[in-house]
Amino acid sequence: xxxxxxxxxxxxxxxxxxxxxxxxxxxxxxxxxxxxxxxxxxxxxxxxxxxxxxxxxxxxxxxxxxxxxxxxxxxxxxxxxxxxxxxxxxxxxxxxxxxxxxxxxxxxxxxxxxxxxxxxxxxxxxxxxxxxxxxxxxxxxxxxxxxxxxxxxxxxxxxxxxxxxxxxxxxxxxxxxxxxxxxxxxxxxxxxxxxxxxxxxxxxxxxxxxxxxxxxxxxxxxxxxxxxxxxxxxxxxxxxxxxxxxxxxxxxxxxxxxxxxxxxxxxxxxxxxxxxxxxxxxxxxxxxxxxxxxxxxxxxxxxxxxxxxxxxxxxxxxxxxxxxxxxxxxxxxxxxxxxxxxxxxxxxxxxxxxxxxxxxxxxxxxxxxxxxxxxxxxxxxxxxxxxxxxxxxxxxxxxxxxxxxxxxxxxxxxxxxxxxxxxxxxxxxxxxxxxxxxxxxxxxxxxxxxxxxxxxxxxxxxxxxxxxxxxxxxxxxxx
Length: 479
Ligand code: ADP
What we know:
The relative contact order is 0.14. Strands 15-18-19-14-13-21-22 form a seven-stranded mixed sheet, sandwiched between helices. Strands 10-9-8-11-12-24 form a six-stranded mixed sheet, with helices on both faces. A three-stranded mixed sheet has the order 1-5-4, with helices on one face. It is globular and about 75 Å long. It has two domains: about 1-245 and about 450-475, 3-Layer(aba) Sandwich (Aldehyde Dehydrogenase, Chain A, domain 1), CATH 3.40.605.10; about 250-435, Aldehyde Dehydrogenase, Chain A, domain 2 (3-Layer(aba) Sandwich), CATH 3.40.309.10. Helix content is about 40%, strand content about 20%. Strand 9, helix 6 (about 175-190) and strand 10 (about 195-200) form a beta-alpha-beta unit. Helix 1 (about 40-55) crosses helix 7. The chain contains 15 helices and 25 strands. The chain is of the alpha/beta class. The protein starts with a strand and ends with a strand. Bound molecules: adenosine-5'-diphosphate. Adenosine-5'-diphosphate (ADP) binds near residues 209, 225 and 232.
């Protein structure tokens, strides 16, 4: 059996298909998934365009009910779908279930938002004229998503897109079609009319390229790498489309002398190598002041060594596998680069052979790192965390800000003065105090600055900016 694409309300086969392999056990085939070609991507865009006029005028109640249905089913099936997620992507089961739960909560949130699409009435500066500002759907939206959060990211793009009255074509990552398919299966039974939501699985270059280039896609929301993001952005903006992008991160976590050591270690390790380091918000640069640096490095190394790497579905595993062999090569390359640059691999970094054949790697703490080193400047996306020494708070802040990427940042300190100063002067889009830089809420804005992001923020009510277009109306009542 092949899992099909969903175009104009029909499950549609494709000439090509891809094999979805469990990274924890390469003998376990999760399923075979249809790979759409360019024609099918265009059919999906056409279906979304045809469905737009009716959907943009639907009652908010219908949208709210459909989104609530989707959220309810995701929450009810969190254990089953969480297991599928862990099999497909390799994150441990508690995280897989947590991610499905998050996706359900996101749909529930936007079910309510569909009922709150408000505008504003403003007094005109001219006598007798009324001004009102409305927020209308932007139109057909393309969604291109990555493999590392295979249901949460499709959820936090799809739910607001539909709530605000847009029609959708979703192109999930090649490595994780199962979660996108499972979400689509639920959407297909939610009462949403044909053509409003379409799924086209397949090649980034072909199917994603088609969504980026098509003049019939009004807005495109992308999450993925900086390099691909640039290609997508150029294609979308060159044709006058609207783009929103979340890309890489190299988040700093500053640890000051007065920090609670135990909490700082938990943040430093829990926010980096856990989840196999496959989060764009990971705190991969730990910047410690001299009074705590040595103790922190030692405690992080001890904590990291104790982490158990294993099959994502085994209860004893703290860390699952790397997602695929290509990502493993990247991780290994950066470990080698770190060594050559003169940093010290305190623990881990090596590939592991376990009972199941999978892409296992021991998480690594890298000491004696500096901000000029390549492995510290470039995003790795693997279980590798680097520790840098700063002279004092100001130096630590300067190092934290010295990056092209500025998604999230954090500081561990008991000092209110430094915490407040860091919140003001950090250049990142999200700032954490005494918390890991990874781990965010779903009802507040999500996004970064500099090369990490482009366009308006995702999630919460902030999503309205991207998924709607404002219209300012002036009325002069004549009678
Ligand atoms: P990663 O390296 O983590 O796979 P990418 O940025 O390459 O991250 O992929 C993120 C998403 O972008 C995936 O859905 C992928 O298929 C898609 N993609 C890859 N290349 C292109 C492209 N040239 N145009 C549009 N989408 C693409």
